[in-house]
Amino acid sequence: MRVLVTNDDGIHAPGIELLEQIARELSDDVWVCAPSDNQTGAGHSLTLSLPVRLRKHGERRFSVTGTPTDAVSIGLKQIMDGPPDLVLSGINAGANLGDDITYSGTVSAAMEGALAGIRSIALSQVMTQERPPSGDRFNAARHWARRVIEPLLDTPFEPRTLLSVNFPSLDASEVRGMRVVRQGFHDYARASVVEGRDPRGQRYYWFGLDAIEHTPDHGTDLEAIAEGFVSVTPLQLDLTHHASVAALADRFAG
Ligand code: MN
Questions:
Q1: Is a pLDDT exceeding 80 seen at residue 235?
Q2: Separation of alpha carbons 222 and 186, rounded Å
Q3: Which of 7, 58, 139, 254 has its CA 20 to 30 A from that of 71?
Q4: Average pLDDT, the chain
Q5: d(CA 253, CA 90)
Q6: CA of 204 relative to ligand 1 center, distance in Å
Q7: Which residues, chain by chain, have CB under 5 Å from ion ligand 1?
Q8: Mean pLDDT to the nearest integer, 236-246
């Protein structure tokens, strides 16, 4: 089995080191291609207006001066000598739950893998203000990632689908299990934008990512995490709201 490991936090992030370790427990053919810098919030963007540079960090270990999508694309098309059986993206330092998905570079890297027809899994470690008792912020992911990935290795994935996995901000022993759940939502429309002045007096804006306090809907990723479970959410590349197609077509009918 050949595995491509990537992320959005950059090649030097602790989460990708952990994911690489986990991948090596599952395979002896692990490749890494990740952004050279932190690309959190890059979503599914592709670099089109600048050249992307590739740097070799070691045997089968590379970074690109671009987005997570660039990294997967270059990994698949330029670096690897054959397609991987699995793309693993993460482990992101922070949640990718609910509406985070379309902003998420971590999930988008897995989307790029799914677009290429490869079994792809995004993995994110939820991080809260309070650390878990052990102080190891990746503790849940460290001990649960393999238990999540292993059964998926021979699970058929529907075409144009991928998985997003989130680990709760708990020590591994406190995690209550795994739940397959749908995507919930939070309301980033009300999240803060801080306005300030730089040292030269120019105005700037800086986005906050405040958690919106609300009761997560039943059966969602947000609820599973709030209740101490690892959440596993199947996603699809087709964003069409199928139920609206017929009604909308009626509006434009002769
Ligand atoms: Mn990130």
A1: yes
A2: 9
A3: 139
A4: 94
A5: 46
A6: 23
A7: 8-9, 40, 92
A8: 95
Q: Which residue has the tokens 């998905």?
A: 101
pLDDT of 211 higher than 80: no
User: Which of the listed ranges 3-7, 192-196, 210-214 does the model predict with the highest average pLDDT?
Assistant: 3-7
- What is the mean pLDDT of the segment spanning 2-7? 98
Q: How far, in Å, is the centroid of ligand 1 from the Cα of 95?
A: 9
DSSP state of 131: P
Cα–Cα distance, 58 to 45 (Å, whole number): 26
pLDDT, position 190:
62
Q: How many whole angstroms from 126 Cα to the centroid of ligand 1?
A: 11
Q: Measured in angstroms, how far is the CA atom of residue 128 from the centroid of ligand 1? A: 14
- pLDDT of 213: 61
C-alpha 42 to ligand 1 mean position (Å)? 9
CATH number of the structural domain 2-185+214-239? 3.40.1210.10
Q: What is residue 130's predicted lDDT score, i.e. its pLDDT?
A: 85
Q: Phi and psi of 236, rounded to 5°?
A: -125, 150
The Å distance, Cα 167 to ligand 1 centre, comes to: 14
- CB burial of residue 48 (10 Å; 0-12, 13-18, 19+): exposed
